[in-house]
Design brief:
The complex is a heterodimer of chains A (72) and B (160). Chain A is mostly helical and 72 residues long. Helices cover 53% and strands 6% of the residues of chain A. Chain A contains five helices and two strands, in the order βαααααβ. Chain A is elongated. Chain B has a two-stranded antiparallel ribbon with strand order 1-2. Chain B is built from five helices and two strands; from the N terminus they run αββαααα. The longest helix of chain B is centred in the middle third of the chain and has 28 residues, at 92-119. Chain B starts with 9 loop residues before the first helix and ends with a helix. In chain B, α1 (10-32) packs antiparallel against α2 (67-83) and α3 runs antiparallel to α5 (135-157). Chain B has 160 residues and is of the alpha+beta class. The chains are: A mainly alpha (72), B alpha+beta (160). The A-B interface holds A 15-17, 24-29, 31-32, 34-35, 37-38, 40-41, 43-44 and B 1, 89, 91-94, 96, 148, 151-152, 154-155, 158, 160.
């Protein structure tokens, strides 16, 4: 799963630290999500989207690798 | 999404103090050649017997060497408090790291125990059984703190 948190942060002029405080997590968590090292829970994803005032699928989106390969 | 089975963050410090006391308790007699406490104390006994002695007691109060008992009690309590205390900010990344560290520690502990069971015999095996209880907390603490450090390192080096 990929995300546009970094872009949205830049658009809204919010630092990792500020976003972390707004959604009650550590800055490390925001950083890990941005680097695709950690997939957030639905609750956290919704909280982040609420900060950016965007629907969840505009910030978080699936990639091809998230779908299992089809066996012919 | 709350992890309810965890103590308050302040218990972590108490846990480390208990671990340090238990280590000091073992090191003191080695360095100063005398014991900190009276070793033979009357204690409640559920069951006890000794090898090479025709001696056995159940549900009684008898004097026993409590050197190992005190060390194990303090260190196990300390390990439990350190492991099961919340971080200052306990979020889902920390919970995730906690879970993976626990899986790692249990797996490594049992693998090690399996190897030692197949290769160590005699009375040394008893020591293996006793000290194997520290493999889980030890591996857990190393893995957990390493991952936390790695995450904070990435965050420090990453631009805002």
């Amino acid at each position: 799963m990929n995300n546009k948190i970094k872009i949205e942060r830049a658009v809204n002029n919010i630092t990792q630290d500020q976003l972390a405080q707004l959604v009650s997590v550590t800055r490390q968590t925001i950083n890990a999500i941005e680097l695709k090292k950690f997939v957030p829970s639905t609750v956290l994803a919704l909280k982040i989207c609420k900060v950016f005032n965007k629907p969840v699928e505009e910030v978080f989106f699936l990639e091809d690798e998230d779908f299992p390969t089809q066996i012919n | 999404m709350g992890t309810t089975l965890l103590f308050h963050n302040r218990f972590k410090k108490i846990g480390w103090i208990l671990i340090l006391i238990s280590i000091g308790f073992q090191l003191y007699p080695m360095i100063f050649k005398k014991y900190l406490i009276t070793r033979y104390v009357y204690v409640p006994v559920l069951f006890s017997n000794y090898m090479f002695k025709n001696f056995r007691e159940t549900f009684s109060i008898h004097p026993h060497d409590i050197d190992l008992t005190v060390f194990l009690t303090l260190s196990i309590l300390g390990c439990l408090l350190v492991i099961f205390s919340k971080e200052k900010i306990e979020d889902e990344l920390v919970s995730n790291i906690r879970l993976t560290s626990l899986i790692w520690s249990v797996l490594i502990s049992y693998m090690l125990f399996l190897i030692l069971t197949m290769t160590i015999y005699g009375t040394t095996y008893l020591l293996v059984c006793i000290f194997n209880i520290y493999t889980i907390p030890l591996v857990y603490l190393i893995r957990f703190n390493f991952l936390l450090y790695k995450n904070s390192f990435y965050t420090r080096t990453d631009e805002q």
